[in-house]
Amino acid sequence: xxxxxxxxLLADGSFSVLAADAAGIPRKxxxxxxxxxxxxxxxxxxGSSAHGxxxxxxxxxxxxxxxxxxxxxxxxxxxxxxxGADCDWRIHLARPRGGSIxxxxxxxxHRLALGPGDVVMLDGVRVTSPERTxxxxxxxxxxxxxxxxxxxxxxxxxxxxPSPRAALSSIxxxxxxxxxxxxxxxxxxxxxxxxxxxxxxxxxxxxHLRLAVVRGGLPEPKLNYVVWGPAGAPELxxxxxxxxxxxxxxxxxxxxxxxxxxxxxxGRARTTDRLGWVEVRVSKEDLAGERPAVVGRVRRxxxxxxxxxx
Length: 310
Prior knowledge:
This protein is an alpha+beta fold. It has helices at residues 8-11, 17-22, 27-30, 52-55, 70-76, 130-137, 143-154, 171-180, 187-194, 204-215, 261-274, 293-304, and strands at 15-16, 35-39, 42-45, 67-68, 91-96, 107-112, 119-122, 125-128, 227-228, 234-236, 240-242, 247-251, 278-282. The strands form 5 sheets. A 3-stranded antiparallel β-sheet has the order 1-3-2. A 3-stranded mixed β-sheet has the order 4-5-6. A 3-stranded mixed β-sheet has the order 11-12-13, sandwiched between helices.
């Protein structure tokens, strides 16, 4: 006998048996071998490539108020998270204050005081907004990692960049969220972190680079800076820059081991030199320790270009 074909809303991600009931799917169909039981009352098609919110949709179909939050929401919004966060792959679910805490296998349950605008719909799934997610992460992340998370939410690049990017939020919107929840857990850490958030950092290492040089007594570099060539076209996009001294900072991440990247790095270094700038390439090791080596490297570059310490 031919199996009943599932409607798109059920077939393109996880779904609850209750949602299948509402769609008129017989319970026998939800027990078919082409479906995997993820958790009690939750199914997903075998071999499904669903990811993000769609893969977790069923957890918000079990009742009318459960919402994806904390690290789970952060991953859905593609927030820049520290490497240690990879160890926590639990599904973080929350219900409003006064309700019960979600309890399931591989689920971390929370009760949250959710106000207007704290929850949004994404791909048919209830998830905490980018701003509320930033606030909740203050209970989990260290200060610098929280700054990096904030940077990733407000990061944007205009059309003059090779890869334009629209921001998920803004510093103003994050601040409004904190003002709406003055008694939230770790609100002080959230406020302190927001004071360091800047627009333009594309990854946590870029955030840690900026924080390291500033704490090392050096001027704060500019982010989102474009170096224009003599023909009036953009030619260089440093991760951070000191335009007054022609010093460009570039972080060499994991992608620098990709095929062809070495040649692209050489080409960028030549462009930097031709435009009269000097490049400081920064590695993961340069950011390690209480006194990161990057501070000395950037200091020497600035001094060589005429910078005078105050």
